Backbone:
């Protein structure tokens, strides 16, 4: 069993130039439309209620927030660290066009140029799975994702759907995950998937050694 046993805020950056300098490819980027439940998911995954601030004003935050996260593999007692990166919500911003343009350019540059990113997690509200903006984001990620980077789609607020609706969503998006932050549903599975992707090189090496 893998758990997140510690998480703390490191810093905020307005763009890629101000991002933390590191040689490790251990960043997990969380991105979503505003009001999809990104902050709530971060808090649920890390079991830290106040880690990511849940804003009452969608689109208010325009900084890239970094968190140090510590994983513990209970089976091997091995600890490892990674960085969770909280990107500003897209698609909802009551700001001037010039500010919005600069903001979106900063995010685009970050996503396409930040080599330290290992995993992009694209969060989608399960009640609105086919919005044009989410489709555009998915296409952008696939077009700009490097061969050594991964993309994971997670549907949030799955507790809002009945069983029939959940089944239909799984059938349509078989590679996506479903979670409910409020019900703590799907958290353990999500943590394990994130952990395995971060440690894929080590696991491949172990397979070779065996």
Residues:
């Amino acid at each position: 069993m893998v758990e997140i046993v510690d998480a703390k805020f490191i810093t905020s950056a307005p763009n890629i130039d101000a991002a933390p300098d590191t040689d490790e490819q251990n960043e997990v980027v969380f991105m979503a439309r505003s009001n999809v439940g990104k902050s709530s998911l971060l808090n649920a995954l890390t079991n830290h209620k106040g880690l990511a601030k849940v804003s009452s004003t969608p689109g208010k935050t325009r900084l890239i927030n970094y968190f140090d996260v510590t994983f513990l593999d209970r089976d091997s007692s091995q600890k490892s660290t990674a960085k969770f990166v909280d990107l500003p919500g897209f698609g909802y911003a009551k700001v001037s066009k010039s500010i919005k343009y600069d903001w979106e350019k900063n995010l685009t540059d970050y996503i396409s140029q930040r080599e330290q990113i290992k995993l992009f997690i694209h969060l989608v509200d399960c009640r609105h799975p086919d919005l044009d903006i989410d489709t555009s984001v998915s296409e952008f990620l696939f077009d700009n994702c490097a061969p050594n980077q991964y993309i994971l789609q997670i549907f949030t607020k799955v507790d809002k759907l009945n069983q029939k609706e959940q089944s239909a969503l799984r059938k349509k998006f078989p590679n996506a995950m479903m979670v409910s932050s409020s019900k703590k549903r799907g958290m353990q599975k999500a943590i394990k998937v994130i952990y395995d992707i971060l440690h894929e090189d080590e696991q491949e090496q172990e397979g070779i050694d065996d």
The chain is about 35% helix and 25% strand. Residues 64 and 139 are 21 Å apart (CA to CA).
